[in-house]
Amino acid sequence: ELNYQAQSPDEGALVTAARNFGFVFRSRTPETITIMEMGEKVTYELLAVLDFNNVRKRMSVIVRSPDGKMTLYCKGADTIIFERLDRSCKKLMKVTTGHLNEYAGDGLRTLALAYKHLEESYMEEWIQRHHEASTALEGREERLDQLYEEIEKDMILLGATAVEDKLQDGVPHTIEQLAKADIKIWVLTGDKQETAENIGYSCNMLREEMKDVFIVAANTTEGVKQELQYARRKMCPGAAEEPTVTKVRAGLFWLKKMETVQDEKVEGEYGLIINGHSLAFALEKDLELELLRTACMCQTVICCRVTPLQKAQVVELVKKYKQAITLAIGDGANDVSMIKAAHIGVGISGQEGMQAVLSSDFSFAQFRYLQRLLLVHGRWSYLRMCKFLQYFFYKNFTFTFVHFWYAFFCGFSAQTVYDEWFIALYNLVYTCLPILSLSLFDQDVNDRWSFQYPQLYSPGQLNMYFSKKAFVRCMMHSCYSSLVLFFIPWGAMHDTVRDDGRELVDYQSFALLAQTCLLVVVSAQLCIDTYYWTTVNQFFVWGSLAAYIAITLTMYSNGTFLIFTSIFPFVGAARNSLNQPNVWLTIFLASLLCILPVVALRFILIQMRPTINDKVRHKMQMEAPPAPAPRRPVRRVSTRRSGYAFSHSQGYGALVTSERFLFKRPLKSLLAFSIQTDLPLATNQAKLFRPIPEEIEGSQSSQS
Prior knowledge:
By secondary structure, the protein is α/β, with parallel strands linked by helices. It is built from 26 helices and 18 strands. Pfam families: Cation_ATPase, PhoLip_ATPase_C.
C-alpha cells in the first residue's frame, strides 16, 4: 500500500490519479525516479528541478529516460504555460482553453502541462551553467531565473488537469454569520480572477442579489484610478471627489496623531474584485486612499493573484487609515506576512503545514471554529473586560473621593478616614474575588443565543461598553456615591447618642460606619452588574462580606488589643457601634441612596432606548432557547467554486535533489480586514485528464 507525501495537496491528488490509470510512482532517490508504467518498471534519471516561486508560477523537471532521451516537463498556470508554447500548438491550445473554462465552471482547480525534448550537447552546456549559477555567491536568484527562462521556451502542450478543491465544513455559514456581525471580510488569494470569483460565490460572499460587482483589471495607473472612481461614483454619486481624512489622537494620553478615512454610507450591497497587477498600482501612494475608500463602500472585497507581500501591504493600509482591529487567518507559509501584519493572527493547522500556526496568536484545525472564537468567546471576553475596568475604577474612585471630602473636616492633615487595616485589605481581600469571578464567568446571553444573533457583536466594534464617555460617567457615578457615603454617615452620627445616653460620635465609630457603607455599596453595585450568576459568584460575594465582618470583629476585639496593643488601636469600636439600630439604619439609607438611582436609570434606558443586548436578553426570558449548532454543519452547495490555485512559496528542488528529504507543505491563501482569512482545504480529488480530439491526434502534441 503506497502512502504519498506531497509538497502540496494538489500534487498528491495528481500522483494518486496517475496511479489509478496504471502509472505508479514507486520510489525515488536524489538522482532517480522509479515508475511502474502499465506494469513495466522504468527508472528515469533526474537531471534538474526548476523550482516554483510566486513570480514564475510554474515548475519544471528535466529527466533522462532509459533510452537516453532528455525531456523537460513543466506544469503551471494556464496563462504562464500558454505564453511559452511552440507555434504548432495553437489548435490544441484553443481546444484546451475550452476544457479549462469548462473545468473552472465546474469549480475545479486547473493546471496546464507541457514538455520539450532537449539536445545532448545543449544540455551539457546548460547543466554546467546551472551548476555555476546555483553555487554563485552573488546574484544567484537572478542568474537561475535567466537560465530557467531560457530553457522553458517552445514547449509542446500536453493538456490540462483539474483537481476538486473542497471547502471545509461550515465555511460558507461561518462567513455569513461574521458578515451579519458587521465584520468586514476581504479575500486575499493567489488564484486567478475566475477562481476568486467562484470562491466568493461558494462562500456566500458574492450573491446574485448584489446590485453590482465591480472588477478592476487595468494595467496602468490611470486605468486603475478611473475604474476605482467609476465604482465609487456609482455606489455613492453625491460623495466628494477627495476622501475625508480626519486627524485623531490615539495611544497613551492621546499623544499619537493618526489619519483616519471616514466611512461613507452606501445604499445596497456591492462587491469589488481586483487582480494583482491592478492592486500593485492601487497600493501606490497617490492611489491608496482611493482604493481604501472604494473598497470600504463594498460589502465584499476580493483581491486575486496577489503575492504574500501585497497581502501584508493591504493589511497595513487598513491599519493605517481605519480605526479598526484587523484579524488575518491563513493556513500556509504564504500567509505568514499577512498574519504578522494584522493585529491578531490566526493559523489553521491542516494539510498545508505548520508555518502559519507557528506565526499566529491563535490556532485551530477548522475554519468554522473562528465563529465561536469571535461571536462567543471574543464577545464574552470584551464584555467581561469592560465590566472589570468600569467596576475597578468605580470602587477605587469612590474609595478615594471619600478621603477628599474628609480632608475638609480634618484640616487637610492627611489623616485617613478609614482604619489602616481596612485600607490594606480593601483591594486585597474584600473586593478582589467578587470582580475576579465576574470577569471569568459573566455572560449576557449564552452561546446558543450568541450564534442566533451575531448582531450582538456590533456594540464591541462601536466601543459602547468602555470609552472615554464611559470613563467620565464612571467618575461622575463615583463622585456621587462618595458624597452619599461620606455625608450620610456624617449627618447621621452628628450629635447622636447611644441607647444608654453616651455619645456615639468619635473618629473610630465614624470610620467603621463609613467603611462598612462603602463595602456594602460596591458589593451591591457588583451584583447589579452581574448577568450570569454561578455558585462561585455567590460564594465570593457573600464570602467577602462575611470575611469583612469576621476580620473586623477580630481586629477590634479586646484579645487582639491585649496581644498587639500598638497595631490594633480600634478596640471595642465594632462592638459598641454595630449594636445600635441607628447605625444599621444609616448603612441601609446610604446603600439605598447609592443603588436606587442606578437601578432607576437603567430601567428607564431599557424602556426608552434598549440595546441589542437588552432585546435579546428579554427574548431569552420569553422564548425557548434555540437548538444547539450541529457539530458538523452542512456545507451549502454552489454551482460556482474555486478554479486554479498554486502555492506562493519557494519550491524545494534543492532538497529533492540532495541527500536530505524534508518535505514541507506550503499553501493556497486567502483573506483580510477586521477579518482577513484563508479558506483551507479539506480534501483534494483528482479528475480525469481531458482526452485529445481525434482531429489533433496525429500531431506531435497528441501525447496527453
